[in-house]
# Entry
Amino acid sequence: MNTANSRFRKPFKLLNRIQHYDWGTKNEDAFIPRFTGIPAVPDRPYAELWIGAHPGASSEIIVDGEVTPLNKVIDEAPVEILGEEVARRFGNRLPFLLKILSAGRALSIQAHPDRVQARRLHAADPAHYPDDNHKPEIAIALDSLTAIAGFRPLEEIADAVRRYPELQEIAGTDIVRRVLAGDGEPATGAAVKELYAAIMRRAGDAAVLSSVIGRIIDRLPAAAARSEEERIFVEQHAVYGADVGLLSIFFFNLVHLKPRQAIFTEAGVPHAYIRGNIVECMANSDNVVRAGLTGKFKDVPSLLDILQYRFAPYPILNREAKTDGVVYRTAAEEFEIRGYRKSAGFDERLSAGGKPVVVLVTLGALDVRWDEGGSGTTKAFRKGDAFLVPAALPAWRMSAGDEVEFYTVSVP
# Structure
């Protein structure tokens, strides 16, 4: 038996890093500490748990008694961890990154570049665009998710422009007139694109934004009579002040996800998570183009350059909220995520066909059994645990004495 290969013929528990971005949940609302079973530090935000091999916050595994970053292990043993096909296709890199994301308030107005755009941004500004890779991603609600994503149908945007005439002060009456009087979808779509770009380009004009946003808030109905978009607008204004990103709320679809429902965002799709706790999976990249509702670097010209303008309701995956054997099919070639909820007595043999698999337990506990050196070995993984099954392990069994819920990520 190949000695190097045999070292990786077993599952490895992943020791994962937490990111403490300021929009994360805190104190009694801190989801990630509850999920992973650690105490929450008072007033510290817990935003993301990274599960994977991104060099910015790689998970670690214990190999031969030593704690080692997973990306370094892959560098040394790419075929054993990834398998020949995945190693060849993705340049000896684990192609996906799994996360738990917990939003206590809105994330930035953002979009992700495609591969060509990512390479260009990385070459021009590697400090703010650390990867030369694209970032298609899926968000699966653990409890719920409120988000804005993709441009609304044209008629809904036109209705919002009528409701908030203050937008004319930012974009000009000629553009607004074309939005409201466009003759047919192409002309109206072009006018909305022009309107949105004109608004976003005023991001640095604090006086105008303060005046316009302040007058919109002053003119809103009493709190009990406000629409949900108006409530979100006011809530985020209290956090971010007169930020141009607030106005995107009137242009994008408002999306609500129940547990196990999901949305997929491909390159150029504008979006922002407002609140909720999710499982998120993406290509192994941290490239984000931001333009509002954030204290981080904003790049309005790049955002406008990469945006996709599709005026339609946003599609929801697993709309029926099925619980077991759900395959979240997307256009991403880097990952395929599946969700399972099994009753007591679950016992199943699995094989990944020479590819890596990451498993995340979200409820209960999984017992994992495999053959190691001619004898069977069993290890328990509980809620909040994630483990890697390397490509070198041909097969394993998973079982549960009680109800269990888990997600698996592999390469399609």
